[in-house]
Amino acid sequence: MSTLIETIFPTLTNLVQCLAPWWRISPIWSSDTVDARQRSLLRILATAHKERLDPAVLVDHLANEHRWSYKWRLKRLARRLREGTLLVDALEQTPDALSDPIVLAVRFATQCGTLDATYSRLIGEHDETDNRLQYAMRHSLAYVIVIGLIACLITLFQMTFIIPTIVKMERDFSDASEQISSASVLKSLISVSHFIADYFPMLLMLMVLIFLIFKVGNIRRLFRRGLAGRWFSAVAKRRSAQLLELLADSLEAGRPLSGSFSTLARYHFDTRIRHKLLIARNEIEQGAKPWDSLAEVQLISPAESKAIAHSSTKTDRVWTLRRVANWQSKKLSRSRENRSTLFQPIAVMALASFVLWIGYAYFQFLYNLVQNLAKP
Hints:
Layout: H1 2-8, H2 10-19, H3 34-51, H4 55-63, H5 68-82, H6 87-93, H7 100-112, H8 115-124, H9 129-172, H10 174-181, H11 184-198, H12 200-215, H13 217-231, H14 233-252, H15 257-267, H16 271-285, H17 290-296, H18 302-309, H19 314-340, H20 343-373
Helix pairs in contact: 1-2, 3-4, 3-8, 4-5, 6-7, 7-8, 7-14, 7-15, 9-11, 9-19, 9-20, 10-20, 11-20, 12-13, 13-14, 14-19, 15-16, 16-17, 17-18, 18-19
């Protein structure tokens, strides 16, 4: 029967085949966060490595279950794998398919021969903080965007209609001018309206620049890899904790620390940490102790350096490294969650203050105007 349909309706058959890839179990607008998508790819790669399967086929099938930009990102990754590119090279050539710390961990594990243990650790020790924060931030940003559009409409209306009308009324009622001019809140509203009108092109360029920082891949990666660690101490501490996890994997596998430092200094995505690791490696080659070198370049604290150095056996040292990294990660996760809960209330208070400011300015103007007209 199917052969008969293909013979009679070849065009219809080709149309169905073209539309088939669009029929997926995932919705068009997926609720999955970036962290959830990257974790699914990580599990696919771990399964392919463990079961000795072709990762290109699995990644291509996974791409068909996603939408929009991440789908095409996975398609590019699958194409590079089919062309014979090594997995870690294909991941580095496909930015944002996996997060920078995970790609670095895979690269480091490939160099050290600890890929099985690294996959198990990355999957088993996954912290859901990133997923929760991204999900909450998505809802908060949607709320802020909607409220911001409403605020823009209010501002546009009062700039194009209400403020000019008030200024005209001020000219018509000369007796009320003194009362109106004494209304400082109204004067501030008029001044801000004139400022927005005068500098609107510059404000628009600033908003476009902020949008590019968060949405355009190259600019976002430049900010994330080169500037975020310098400007935000929490980001720097989190990356130091991830660095300790990698050193623990290397030490557990019996790799020399100087070689681990050289590998991380070559491949680490953060330029600041890469420079510090180069300094620490040079000091180690000159006879300095590894953990003291890390403390001197401020990748770990002096107390953490002493705790790691005082561990007598390799097992104790690995346990101490993981313990310190885990403690730092949990501490930073709690701090990030506490800060994220303030985002939406601050946005609500900002909009409420904006509306209150406009309402009070208009009320003050009307009050002064009515009071002046009521004079005998």
